[in-house]
Amino acid sequence: MKLINHATVVAATILLPFAAAARPDHITGSVKESSGKSITAATVTLLRQADSSWVKTELTDASGAFVFNGVVDGQYLLKVTALGYEPRFQQVQLQGNQPSLATVTMEPRTSQLKQVTVTERKPFVEARLDKTIVNVEGAVTSAGSTALEVLEKSPGIMVDKDGNISMRGKQGVVVMIDGRPSYLSGADLANYLRSLSADQVAQLELITQPSAKYDAAGNAGIINIKTKKGRQSGLNGSVSLAYTQGVYPKASNTIQLNYKKNKINLYGSYNFSHWEGFSHHELDRNFRTGGNDVVTSNFNQNTSMRNVGNPHSLKAGVDYDVTQKTTIGLSVNGMFNTQQNDNNSLTKITDNVNQTISYNKAENRIHNPWSNGGFNAYMKHSFKQQGPELSADLDYMQYLANSNQLATNQPLDAGMVPVGVPLQLRGELPSDIRIYSAKVDYSHPFAKTWKFEAGAKSSYVTSDNDARYSVMDQNEWTYDSSRSNHFIYNENINAAYVNTATSIGKQWQAQVGLRLENTNAEGKQLANNQKFTRTYTQLFPTAYVSYQLNKNNQFSLNYGRRIDRPSYQDMNPFRYFLDQYAYQQGNPYLKPQFSNNVELAHVFKGVLITTARYSQTSDIINDILLQNDTTKVTFQTKDNVAKSTNYGVSVSFNYDLTKWWMLNAFGDLGYTHYQGVINNAPIDVEQTTFTININNQFRFKKGWSAELSGFYVSPQLETAMIYARQMGMVSVGVGKKILKDRGSLKLSVRDPFYTLKFSGYTRFDNIDLKVNSRWDNRQATIAFTYNFGKQQGQQRRRQSGASDEQKRVNMGGQQ
User: Fold this and answer.
1) What CATH number is attached to the domain comprising 73?
2) Which candidate, 308, 189, 280, places its Cα nearest to that of 812?
């Protein structure tokens, strides 16, 4: 398939005076007292009139106004609640994509409203044209779990054995926390998400094709994790306690508080967790001479890893309404973890007739205390009701790690008797990454059918990594200059964007945008006085069009160009040793990869979404394995190895089968093709992969609920070199509301049949390798949550200015 010409898209951006963010399919209104006084922070819930099922929830602003955007035609019911007032219910109708207006008048509370019974059911998954929303609170098995475990069972998301996240078969996903990228990657991102309790998470947003307003980073799209933050009047909060038992125990304890009075809103949360687990890896490597098929020796390595962590996380902030049109705020957050990994491995070395030659016993202890913290200051000003808006953000973040490694390798003879002098290696690996970011955004709606957006952003990153290795020599630690290095990386990205959106008649909507990003980077290796500089400027166009055929059928087509820059630690040339025959190493000469993505989607009755996609990516950043046949050393690094083609089709079905049974089903059939060169050897591999994800939510009488969920992934290409065999698991859970519905008790079992494991292999050039992995995945959890104060409405969340940079931090380099 021929790619869309960039010049054509840019020309279309200039010539096309419209785009599709502002749709007329919205319900607006206001909430007032009978005296005419506006009611602020009232909770307005939109329900389908046919079955009273939940659609959306909003809070009224300082003028008592609310708006529901992106609503399809139909009959709806508004449920309005506010502290000190009688609840109100009002019917509204949206027809022909014309705005629907509603004014709700409330009376002070004198008696309870009993004549109307409404059941609000928030689905676990909401599939929309532009994104998929996972409501974490809506799943029984989310209680007591981690953000990573929730991601693993989200539709279209796959987490591999190293913690790398892919979306719909494509790697290069930006993970954001409340609009701020996590700045982590690989195993360290997995460790961070494992440290983030699901009790702190309200929603996941899965965005495969972000608009020009977002950073251009992320080949596969964006995962935005929205944490809980209230805006209800008075003091509100919740306490969550959870205990999990796998082979080893785990626990998560969270408290969240929110206080709002008049113009001030204070919020905060604290979580302490204990995470303890294991993993077992079997690595089988064949060595050949001269590239022939005759095996000359075999290294069979069995590694047992014990991981212990005690993460703490804290978040606090304040919002202040300076006027009805201007709000300012400040938030701080931090997390630290005293993580320790104990790895013990035994490698059996055999000859060409499978006779044992020797063994190598390795003990590797890694103490990796790490922390991150930062603050965000913001301002938002509305020039008039539903008119122009101006917002600004300032962000600062710092990531610190002080990893210490002590490794011992003892050679053994065929009888497992120690021979020779053991290799003892000690490493001190401090890392300091600091990120500064500032951005400003402006939006201006014109009339009812056209909206203009523009903004600018600048970020500056410093990454200082110092690896100091020593070896034991005659009972003394001696500095090892061959393994040590000091790598400093600085990067500045400046960006600007424009975005326009419009509606054409009652059926057509369109949007075009253009983002410009200028990158200036410099890297230095102090050990050998080598350095590099890179400066480049790129354009990233986006275009969307949608067509409403009738009330049951809607179509959309979109295009976007994106970039995926290497993480800071992936460019770090340090070596992280597993044993004397295997290590990991960064590559300071990595280049960014670029992708062009096209999607065509169809929505039927709001419950069935079918999406066809096509993408092409150049300079793919991939994990590769390199091997020295003489020393028998194999190491993993990253390189720009190939170009890839990916296309496929996905189907999402979300429907209330009965009043008590809600089904969310997702299926994806994708094809991936890699073509390139690895270590001067050509590579041409392809694979078709099928993924299915099913979640059943059951709601019974007297506060009982249950969940049955699971996923399956057929064999796939994990990287251009690694084939992964099929994977899958199921989870079950049951819950009960208690304490007058303010509390809940949940019991869940994750992977009860212990089916989730990783098995993969590669046979490329001189590499012949098999790997099998298992970990502490079969777990039973009991969780208790209690909500206090006035519990109503949804959480209000903001996106900060820091975007692409956070995703690219890697705090450790191994697990």
Assistant:
1) 2.60.40.10
2) 189
- What is the value of pTM for the model shown? 0.78
Closest CA to 728 of 706, 698, 759, 707: 759
- Beta pairing partners, 110: none
- Which residues have C-beta within 8 Å of that of residue 100, sequence separation ≥ 6? 26, 27, 28, 92, 93, 94
My answer on whether 83 and 133 are in the same domain is: no
- Per DSSP, the three-state class of 703 is helix
> Rounded to an integer, what distance in angstroms lies between the CA atom of residue 4 and that of residue 451?
25
Domain end, chosen from 50, 74, 106, is at 106
Structure tokens at 234: 């008075």
The verdict on 487 and 386 lying in the same domain is: yes
- How do residues 347-356 score in pLDDT, each as one tens digit? 999 998 999 9
Q: Which residues, listed in sequence order, are joined to residue 611 by a DSSP beta bridge?
A: 601, 650
pLDDT, one tens digit per residue, over 408-456 is: 999 999 999 999 899 999 999 899 999 999 999 999 988 767 889 999 9
DSSP, res 152: H
Q: Tell me the pLDDT of the chain averaged across its residues.
A: 83
Beta-bridge partners for 497: 455, 515
The answer to whether 728 touches 711, Cβ cutoff 8 Å, is yes
Give CA–CA dist 693/242, Å, rounded: 26
3-state secondary structure of 195: helix
Q: How many CB atoms lie within 10 A of CB 242?
A: 23
| Residue of 245, 116, 216 whose CA lies nearest to 496 | 216
- What is the domain count for the chain? 2
What's the CA gap between 152 and 185, in Å, rounded? 16
3-state secondary structure of 137: helix
CA separation for the pair 667, 661 (Å, rounded): 20
Q: Is the dihedral of CA 320, 332, 392, 27 positive or negative?
A: negative
